Amino acid sequence: MTAVEVSVVLPAYNEADTIEGTVSTTLATLASFLPEDAYEVIVAEDGCSDRTPEIATRLANEDNRIRHVHSDDRLGRGGALEFAFDQADGETLVYFDTDLATDMSHLEELVNAIRVDGYDVATGSRWMPENRANRPAKRGIPSFGYNTLVRTILRSDLKDHQCGFKAFDRGALETLLPRVQDEHWFWDTELLVKAQRNGYRVKEFPVDWTPKGDSKVDIVRDVFGMGSQILRTFWELSISPRITREVSLGAGTMLVVIALLLMTQYLDPDRVLAEMAGAAPEIVALSAVVYAVSWPLRGIRYRDILVSMGYRERWGFLTGAIFISQTGNLVFPARAGDAVRAYVIKARRSIPYPSGFASLAVERVFDLLTITLLAGVVMIGLAVTGSAEQLLTALTGDTVGGDAASSGRTAVAVAGGVGVAAIGAVVAIVASARSDRNLVRAVIGRLSSDSYADYVAGVIEGFVGDVQTVAADGSAFTRVGIGSLLIWTFDVITALIVFAAFGYSLTPSLVAVGFFAVSVGNLAKVLPLTPGGVGLYEGAFTVIVASLTPVGVAAAIGVAIVDHAVKNVVTIIGGVASMAWLNVSLTTAVEESQSTDAIEPETND
């Protein structure tokens, strides 16, 4: 018996009507150019619900060239192929779609590109000038658009990435597979892109192709799935390697410098510095102490969130994890520190990533809801007293200064949008938590009929389930809500003490405006437009304070800068101390949190 040289894998999901004919055609085609017993055909049956497993088992029993590889669970397109390739015997590994849309006359060229010509990867193409492919518009337009995006964004030299007609050298594939993260429809594309990036020889050749069955744009698979994977791969290959600690710190510093330089266009920096220089240092120091007191409250609140999700941890450790993550948000762009916290509690306490991100989402929702309510209550008071008209005038006119008002308008608009979103999120979470319906499956089912939708729904269900656990627990909801109110009250008190350091009396009016300014400023900086929200916070704070109190623009921005600086300094000091205590490197945490697949099986062991 000749050793098997070529293994052909047929990925099959509910193919009872066609699988027997496909296997027969495949064997006949292989026999036309390969020695007898030099090949095998593997039916990679991926959790089918029809008679495909029975048929595949029968075929394997009748012909020793046929093997049946079964999976009880849906592995996805890429996962099923990897599972089957791992059990294949051949050195040349081939797969093609079981609908035989690609003309089988090309199979010899596909196999020999690896077996004879020495290529590492070979793929058929429906988009080369020489080929004949009958592409209806509903297939051709999305395919052309997708392949154009891949070539442009991921810098691929190939014209067709999704043609289900590929072959691989076993050694090359075994080296590439650990680098491929997707297990579904993007698997082909990611493998081809990374093969090119790593210097493997890839052959693309034209094939005759006739579409089989119906095809339509699937929102979940094509937009959510494939689109997000293109962006994820672009980040992994082109952006992430360039984001060193030095680059991140440099970019963050540059953004802050630019923001400060822009301020000089509508403010006299000497006046601002003079106002800041007049602040009593001992009272500024007191504001830092008061702000530091709020941090254990953050740890206690986070403990309550995790307890409701089934994880019991000490509040001291959790306070340290929060310090580290918030320090990461000050240093790195795009709120990378949020992922750092999930990494820390996973690495140090084995809390799964989905639960880590869900607990963070709960905390963020409560933060946003609390500061939205604080701002809303004060806004009602301002409307009752008629002061809201002054704010509206400041935002639409020049009473505060054109550029300052423009900055304030942007910040207040962002704050308003975030506030509305926060309220909407809480209403949706509470409503879904009290409903017996599986809203996630229902919504995704309306958008997609593809198997990828099951995968997406499972990920979202795990995440939403953890969030809903807190929303459905009345006592936990109350404790976390009270904790949030205390935390943000301390945040406002810190700003009020800074006002006192600047020599202002804390009148009821100033206290009310202070609550409003701090709340809106924090809502404005939720979007990661600058590291630590520098600029948006000051803009919102200044336009509100300067328009509603006797405090001048220069003094208002001085208070905002000192208030924000005090909070950032306390955060950084706490973050550095926590990193030393927990033996966590911030840069390593960011790298690990970005490279680790956050979607993993969840256990409470």
Description:
Belongs to the glycosyltransferase 2 family. By secondary structure, the chain is α/β, with parallel strands linked by helices. About 65% of the residues lie in helices and about 5% in strands. It has helices spanning about 20-30, 50-60, 75-85, 105-115, 135-155, 170-175, 185-195, 220-240, 245-265, 270-275, 280-310, 315-330, 335-350, 355-385, 390-395, 400-435, 440-445, 450-470, 475-500, 510-525, 535-550, 555-580, 585-595, and strands spanning about 5-10, 40-45, 65-70, 90-95, 120-125, 165-170, 200-205. Strands 3-2-1-4-6-5-7 form a seven-stranded mixed beta sheet, sandwiched between helices. The longest helix is centred in the middle third of the chain and has 33 residues, at about 355-385.
Give the structure's gist in a few sentences.
With 605 residues, this protein is an alpha/beta fold. It is built from 23 helices and seven strands.
Which terms would index this structure?
605 residues, alpha/beta, 23 helices, 7 strands, 64% helix, cell membrane, membrane
Topology readout:
Layout: E1 6-12, H1 19-31, E2 39-46, H2 52-62, E3 66-71, H3 76-87, E4 92-96, H4 107-115, E5 121-125, H5 137-153, E6 165-169, H6 170-176, H7 187-197, E7 202-206, H8 219-239, H9 245-263, H10 269-277, H11 281-308, H12 315-331, H13 336-349, H14 353-385, H15 388-396, H16 402-433, H17 439-447, H18 452-472, H19 474-501, H20 508-524, H21 536-548, H22 553-582, H23 586-595
Parallel strand pairs: 1-2, 1-4, 2-3, 5-7
Antiparallel strand pairs: 4-6, 5-6
